[in-house]
Amino acid sequence: MVIRKILTILIGTLLSYSVLAVGFMNESLDVILFMLMITYPFIFLYGLPVTILSDKITKDSLGVKRVIKAFLFHVLFGMGFVFVLSFFFDPHELFFNFKEYWSSEGELLFFAATLTSFFFWLVDEGIRCFQRKYCYSYE
């Protein structure tokens, strides 16, 4: 399971950064690679436990119910990532000047974190389907 999760983080992060890079075509490749290097350790430290916890919480569910629960879990924690990151690195702006924080970097971080969590979920479900030779049943 841990190998699947590490692969999920590697592939999911690369997919999300590829999509974000297309959205920021006016930025140089150096800037995008720098962003990846800076944020990747935080994504790994936050994403790995979240995706493992998602498996633990949804293990009793089957079929489509498990897939939907896993999706919601991944996306909600992805949305929360921006607040956790800001709590540690910019708590003053987060708590006392939220409107300014949100309009400067918060909105972009929120979008990027949510997109990354979606790709985590998508890649994890894809690897799970590949390993089991089937995706899910309608139970």
From TrEMBL:
* Superkingdom of source: Bacteria
Instruction: List the protein's name.
Output: Uncharacterized protein
Q: Which organism is it from?
A: Bacillus oleivorans
Which residue ranges run through the membrane?
A: 31-49, 70-89, 101-123
UniProt entry keywords in alphabetical sequence: Membrane, Transmembrane, Transmembrane helix
